[in-house]
Structures are given as C-alpha cells and as structure tokens.
Design brief:
2 copies of one chain form a homodimer. Chain A is about 45% helix and about 15% strand. By secondary structure, the first copy, chain A, is of the alpha/beta class. Chain A has 3 domains: about 5-50, no CATH class; about 60-165 and about 295-325, Rossmann fold (3-Layer(aba) Sandwich); about 165-295, Response regulator (Rossmann fold, 3-Layer(aba) Sandwich). In chain A, the strands form 2 sheets. In chain A, strands 2-1-3-4-5-11 form a 6-stranded parallel β-sheet, sandwiched between helices. In chain A, strands 7-6-8-9-10-12 form a 6-stranded mixed β-sheet, sandwiched between helices. In chain A, helix 5 links the parallel strand 1 and strand 2. In chain A, helix 5 crosses helix 12 (about 295-315), helix 8 (about 165-180) runs parallel beside helix 9 (about 195-210) and helix 10 crosses helix 11. The longest helix of chain A has 17 residues, at about 195-210. Chain A is elongated and about 90 Å long. Chains A and B meet through helix 4, helix 5, strand 2, helix 6 and helix 11 of A and helix 4, helix 5, strand 2, helix 6 and helix 11 of B. Chain A binds a DNA duplex through helix 2 and helix 4.
DNA sequence: ATGAAAGCGCTAACAT
DNA sequence: ATGTTAGCGCTTTCAT
C-alpha cells in the first residue's frame, strides 16, 4: 500500500494541532471547533485523500465498531437473509460484522468466540440453534455484550429474538384441520435445538385442541436427506399411509418429504399434504409450491442488531425477549383431504 | 466488558519485560526466548486469562489480518458457498473476512470500499459480476491488494479466478446435440456482466460448430422473474415452439423457464429440455431435477483467498488468471428431442 | 477555540 | 536471551 495520509499529515498541512483535526472531523466534537477551521480541515483532508484509521481509533476508544455474528452454516438458506438484515441495520450506523460458521461444533464455536474476542468486537449476535450454555455464561461474566437469535433464551442471560414458532405450527395444524385432515405426522427437528422442541410441543398441543391424531417422528438433522429418510421409514413401515398430512419441522425436511413421497408413488397434495416451516428461498419454486410458515429472518436480523446496539449503549434491559410474528403462506402443497 | 488482561500484565506477573512476553507468545519469535521463559509466560498468560489484542497488534504491524469480500448480494445462492470457501482457507491462517453487499450499485460499492479501507483490511476479494473499472484501477494505484472472482479480468490489473464458462456452455450444447436437438434458445444474462457475454459467445460458437440453430434472447437480470418474462415473451410471440431446448444463462433463469413452460402447458423435458448454469443449491430438488453446469463456487472462494494471500505476501505475479474446470451435471430436465 | 501531552496494547529496532 | 526505547494513529484530559 502507498504511504497512508494520517491525521497528523492533515494537521501539518492546515497548520493546526492534530487534536484540532480530530475534533473537526468527529461528529460529536465539531462544535468545539470554529466553523472556519472545520472548513479548512475538511478541505485539506479531502485534498490529501485522508482516510481515517479505524484500527487506531478503536485502540484508543476501546470500540472497534465491529460485531461478531456466530451461526452454524451460511449455506443454510435461512441465514443469508438474517445476515443481510443485521447488516442493513448496522451499516448506516458505522458498524461492520464479522460472520463465522461453527458447523454445529461446540469446539469450533469456542475457537471462533475466542478469535472474535481477540479482534475486540463490541458485541456478538449468536444464531447457533443449540445451546452452548457454558460459553454464553462465561461470556456474560466476562462482560461481553450479546444477543441470541432464533433459539430459545432458556436461562441464557442475554436478550433474545425469536419467531413465534408455536403460533406458526398452530396455524399449520389449523389449516390442515380446515382441509379435513384428521391424521397428521410431524417430522420433528433433531434433539438439542430449541426450535425442534418448541415446534413439536406446539404440534402436539394443536392436535389435541383440534381433536386430531398427531404422530411425531424424529429426524437426525434439519436436512433434506434426514427428512427423506424419516419419511421413507414411515412409508416403508406400514400398509399405505395412516396419515394424510405432514407438518415438517422445517422446509428442508418438507423437501425431503417431497422426494420420499415421489419415490413411493404418492402425490402431493393429492395423496399427502405437506406444510414446511421458514418459507426459505425457493419455497415457491418447488413442485408443488410449498405451503409453509414464513419466518421473518431478515427482520430477525434487524431486530437482533438493534437489540445488540442498545445493549452496548446500555439502554437495553437484560432479559428482553422479542417474539416476531410469523404467518402461514398457503401454496400448492396442501389440499383437501383425499376421499378414502 | 471486564478489565482486560494485557501483555504488560502478564509481563509484570512473570517478572519479565513486555517484549519478552510478546516474543514468547509469537510463533515467529519464540525461538528468541529461552524454553523455560516461554513455559512460564505461557502458564501465567493462561492463568490470567490473557487475550491478545489484535487491534493493537494491527496498529503496530500494519496488518489487521482482516480481508474484505465485496459481493452483490449474499442471498444469491452462489455466494454462500464461495464465502465459505474463502473462509475455509483464511481461518486456519488467522485471517478473518468482512463481507459486504453492493446490491449492484456502484455508489454503494464505492462507499463500502472506502469503509473497508478505513478498517485497514489487508486485501480485497471482489465478486461483483460487473466491472467497476475505475474503482479497481484507483485501488491498484493506491497499492491495494485484491483479487477478482467470478468476473472476467478484462484489463483489471489484479489476479482473477473464474470458472471455465465457455467449456460449460459447450458441454451443454454438445449434450443437447447428442439428444437430437436442432433448434436451441439461449437465455442470455443481462448486459454488463462478463459472464453474460462469455456464455452467450460460447453458445453461439457451439451452435455453429455443431451446425445447430441457436437463437439468443436477452434477459434484464439473473433472476427467476426475468427468466420467466423472457420465456413468456418467446412463447407468447409465436405459434408453438420453434425450438426444443433452452440453454439458460444461469439456474435462476432456468427456474423462470420452468415456471413459464408450466404456465404455457408445456412439459419439461418432454416438450422442452432445459439446461441451467451453476448447479446452485436445490438444483437437484426442483421438478424436474435440473441439468446444469456445476460451477465450483466453494473452490473459487478457496482459490481467490489463496491468490490474495500470495499477493499480499508478494509471491504472486500480477496478472494471474486461474480458470477452474466446470462439469455438466445431467439430471432430469434434458431428454431426447420430442418426435414432431 | 486550540495546543500540549499522554497513552490505548502491542512490536520492532537497538542495546546489552 | 532479555531489557530499553520508541512509536503505530488516534482521542482525550488538561492547559491556556
């Protein structure tokens, strides 16, 4: 890189003290400097091509204007919108974010956490669905600012942003009920994820309240393959379906269900209706277009960023819990129960 | 945050000079310190919970170990794998990356570029498909290290990583030729993207070399909607299809083509075969599963990170051009030409 | 309204 | 092998 122009260079060129330049260039201190000096400083700074050094500033002020975002895997389609939501709130406020992927490993999460601390991030947005309680409690004790997103608070001492999953599942079951379905299957997400538990419990509660028969089948991962495997085991294990609709733990599981149904010569929604969860990218482009619960991932990102900045500013009560509304998007994968 | 433990704290506790601690804790300088001191330092550092301050280090060394990644939009499914590829190479080497989205705006790109410079990134990976030549030349003159990925070098003075798009399109056309197709349509990506031009030219060349009739139709964006609109205009504009296969500029355009065909009561591949480009997420999950050219996005990320680090280390010749091989993935969207 | 001086935490000469 | 000194570029008292 070429020799960088520093604040001192500008000061020398204007003929004032570096601190004056600093004041002139800083929003919160401009009013301490005379109008004319400010003008001269600005002009010279621009002329010289001065670029402030965020690193030096951060060292001095103890604020790097950088946040860490910890998530399991960016290639999971629910995260890009969330990251963009975070960014949309942060960028205009001068913050940047360092995004890291844990791939579901606690060890990796620890390493990345440490690395973010070394980089002096001002705070953390944690979107890893399972609960590394120990790490979060350590963080809290070290005085780290953080916000959890898309996972249940469950004793973690940080603000939390989640979607109203229970409501979403309830709406799904209600929708199937209206279509005349009586026997449902829920493909539950893997153990350890708070979302799995919440959605499963909501499913059971909803079936109860509508007087429907609801069977829960576990999956080993939130993935297409796991969904397909789970559905295969159901379809292989019994004389034709004892159910007419599937409430999948998320859209990937729903997609796996599509594959399994197709393999078994079953048609959706003619033979089996399917509801997903998330309304991820392309949910409308599968065949049939997937009826699913829209989870506001972008907004969750925005909200978590907002909460974190408030936390850092000290204007945020510790245990806040933001629950964002979800909505059922009815598309082609659900239909009236088949005549049997 | 709690009071941080500094290197000086450790030095005091051990009873040595800060610089000794610095040497003891630094890979490249450990051998300047006696074994026993190293051990003591490490032990105390651990005991005190010392966390190195990357910011201070960066100020001193003029290397932040942070790179900038500029891309159009993270929610475009080709980018998450690329970002993860970049990260997989960087993380083990102690680098982090700041990912920013331009949304295709040159103005935004400039702003973000500036912001990354202020953050003292050690280099840039630029994946914005179109060519903001001015910006890149300015960067080069300022001595910025950078690598371009997924766009043509075309006079830009930085190393470039691209997929072998021509080869991919050629393979697509060859595949359709073998299936007996004689009249093809190419849905060309929007003007301004180097990939649009390259793929279009490859399509025309391939049709020539196989003696096929190849029609090119422009789209206004690499999106589902644009693909659908373009296909609609073709299908609405003439008595039944004058073509039997579509080579789409990318998978999104192919997906739009699916929608349009369906709306027009045409079946894929029975009536029209479709080939995409990229093999993006879910390409195998659409109906029919999409025949497409696999572009190695993860590897492109890895490769661009590798090049950039070499550039920074000064071991990289300026105009390097890495062309990664692509491969045609044949799935269900292509079939033998229909009997007419 | 501006200047002088100190220092954030670290590393890199230069001693010894 | 270790200590001393200086300083990266900036902000922030404290003076004036």
């Amino acid at each position: 890189m070429q020799k960088r122009v520093t604040l001192t260079d500008v000061a020398r060129a204007v003929g004032v003290n570096p601190s004056t330049v600093s004041r002139a260039l800083n929003e919160e201190t401009v009013n301490q400097v005379s109008q004319s000096t400010v003008r001269r400083v600005r002009k010279v700074a621009k002329g010289l091509g001065y670029t402030p050094n965020t690193v030096a500033r951060g060292l001095r002020t103890n604020r790097t204007m950088t946040l860490g975002v910890i998530l399991p895997d960016l290639t999971n389609p629910i995260f890009p919108p969330m990251v963009r939501g975070i960014d949309s709130y942060l960028a205009p406020r001068g913050y940047s974010s360092l995004v890291v992927n844990t791939d579901g490993s606690d060890a990796t999460e620890r390493t990345l956490f440490q690395s973010l601390m070394e980089r002096q991030v001002d705070g953390l947005i944690v979107a890893t669905g399972h609960s590394n309680h120990q790490l979060m409690h350590d963080a809290h004790e070290r005085g780290v600012h953080a916000v959890m997103v898309n996972r249940d608070a469950n004793g973690v001492p940080f603000p939390t942003v989640i979607g109203d999953d229970s409501q979403g599942v309830f709406a799904s079951v209600a929708h199937l009920h209206e279509l005349g379905h009586k026997r449902l299957v829920h493909l539950a997400g893997p153990a350890g994820f708070s979302t799995s538990r919440i959605r499963r419990e909501a499913f059971e509660a909803a079936c109860n309240s509508f007087g429907l028969q609801g069977r829960v089948v576990d999956t080993v991962a939130y993935s297409i393959e796991a969904g397909q495997a789970a559905m295969d085991s159901i379809l292989d294990g019994q004389a034709t379906a004892q159910f007419t609709a599937v409430v999948a733990g998320n859209d990937l599981l729903a997609l796996g269900t599509y594959h399994s149904l197709r393999m078994h010569g079953l048609r959706c929604p003619d033979d089996v209706s399917v509801v997903g969860f998330n309304d991820m990218l392309f949910a409308n482009d599968f065949q049939p277009p997937l009826t699913t619960v829209r989870s506001p991932h972008f907004e969750m990102g925005v909200e978590s960023a907002r909460l974190l900045l408030n936390e850092i500013a000290g204007t945020q009560p510790g245990g806040a819990r933001v629950i964002l509304p979800v909505s059922l998007i009815v598309r082609g994968s659900t239909g009236a129960v088949r005549a049997s």
